[in-house]
Write a structure and sequence with these properties.
Elements (H helix, E strand, L loop, with lengths): L4 H14 L13 E6 L2 E7 L8 H9 L7 E6 L11 H7 L4 E6 L9 H8 L3 E4 L3 H7 L1 H9 L3 E8 L4 E4 L10 H12 L3 E5 H7 L16 E5 L10 H4 L6 E5 L17 H13 L3 E4 L5 H9 L5 E6 L1 H9 L5 E6 L8 E3 L11 E9 L2 E8 L2
Parallel strand pairs: 3-4, 4-5, 6-12, 6-13, 8-9, 8-12, 9-10, 10-11
Antiparallel strand pairs: 1-2, 1-3, 7-14, 13-16, 15-16
Helix pairs in contact: 3-4
Cofactor: Zn(2+)
Organism: Rhizobium chutanense
Keywords: Hydrolase, Metal-binding, Multifunctional enzyme, NADP, Oxidoreductase, Riboflavin biosynthesis, Zinc
Length: 376
């Protein structure tokens, strides 16, 4: 590769661009494309909301005739197969691009290496692997679903100074300040789905939506692990299910399951009536053992969910940690003291599981965020 500092600079711009539509491109990855001619950006685009059109044809259309002889910086290998749209590699060839710089090759077997071969066969210079680590980070959700057949899982925990995540019987307890909570809202906005256990859903009665002005439409699908269909019809989740999708994951054998904080009803008729009532309110009921994430996650992937944020509570967090199915940990630590009656955090900074690397520390007001990522 003949990579220059300018190549890295323009690729970094393409990666930043790709993050704009995270969580909004359905099963397609959010890709960034920047077209550069004589050191000047002549076209740029990100995969459109909904997944189409792809980034490359949009950026090429913006560049127009200036694309001939230019360099295209793309965060993911251009597609080479005919789907609902023509291959992006063909578009790059048709516009006369002289060089294509790629961050990450596509693991999709329909594309992997074929896009690069198509470009080179047309006489276009191709360099791959530029800022690959950064590119993989921005494409983590797509890459995980492609290679592991499951969503990329982020576990978010807010822990008090005395190691608690809440207080028994008091519903939602503010642990972090407004700056940290705003950061969590931004994370929700770029995530496909958010998940809590039934204990959290009942005790906290959360909305789990994005409340940043202007980004409300980017609220993720809301998922509740609820083996016995105990989610109250009066809950905020049920009451808003027609505005923002809610999926309740119920056990196929509810009488044999134990929900967080509640015993399952034993009357099958009662369970059936609750299912009917939830579905009438717009809630989708899915039967899949909620406490076996190794089964649940592939089922979510088949629904186009590539990224999943696990937010509560302690048992649910421990469930995913013990299964080894957490890819990223966001651990907020606050100076607040919960005291007597606190709910102990399943995880602290001193006991991060092996296999995770510390990726950085950020400060939000008086709160500290440490981020860890699985190394394999």
């Amino acid at each position: 590769m003949s990579i220059t500092p300018d190549d890295e600079r323009f690729m970094a711009a393409a990666i930043r661009l790709s993050r704009r539509h995270l969580g909004r491109t359905t099963t397609n990855p959010s890709v960034g494309c920047v077209i550069v001619r004589d050191g000047v950006v002549v076209g740029q685009a990100v995969t459109a909301v909904g997944g189409r059109p792809h980034a490359e044809p949009q950026a090429l259309a913006e560049a127009g005739a200036a694309a001939r002889g230019a360099t295209a910086y793309v965060t993911l290998e251009p597609c080479s197969h005919h789907g609902k749209t023509p291959p992006c590699a063909e578009a790059l060839i048709a516009y006369g691009v002289a060089r294509v710089v790629i961050s990450v090759t596509d693991p999709d077997p329909r594309v992997s290496g074929r896009g690069i071969s198509m470009l080179r066969h047309a006489g276009i210079e191709v360099d791959a692997g530029v800022l690959e680590a950064e590119g993989r980070h921005s494409l983590a959700a797509y890459l995980t679903r492609q290679t592991k057949n499951r969503p990329y899982v982020t576990l978010k925990l807010a822990v008090s100074a005395d190691g608690m995540i809440g207080r028994e019987g008091e519903g939602q307890v503010a642990i972090t300040g407004p700056e940290a909570r705003a950061e969590v809202q931004a994370l929700r906005a770029e995530t496909d789905a958010i998940l809590v256990g039934i204990g959290t859903a009942i005790s906290d009665d959360p909305l789990l939506t994005v409340r940043i002005p202007g980004l409300e439409a980017q609220s993720p699908v809301r998922i509740v692990l609820d083996p016995s269909l105990a989610l109250p019809l009066t809950s905020k989740l049920v009451q808003t299910a027609r505005q923002v999708p809610v999926i309740v994951v119920a056990s196929e054998e509810a009488s044999l399951s134990q929900a967080e904080g509640s015993a399952p009803p034993t009357d099958p008729t009662d369970i059936d009536s609750r299912r009917t009532a939830l579905e009438a309110a717009g809630v989708e009921v899915v039967y899949c053992n909620p406490y076996h994430p190794e089964i649940l996650l592939p089922a979510l992937a088949t629904r186009g969910i590539s990224s999943l944020l696990v937010e509560g509570g302690a048992k649910t967090a421990r469930l995913f940690l013990d299964a080894g199915l957490v890819d990223r940990i966001q651990l907020y630590q606050a100076p607040v003291v919960i005291g007597e009656g606190g709910i102990e955090s399943p995880l602290r900074a001193t006991d991060i599981p092996s296999g995770f690397a510390h990726r950085g520390t950020s400060l939000f007001g008086v709160d500290r965020l440490d981020e860890y990522e699985r190394e394999n």
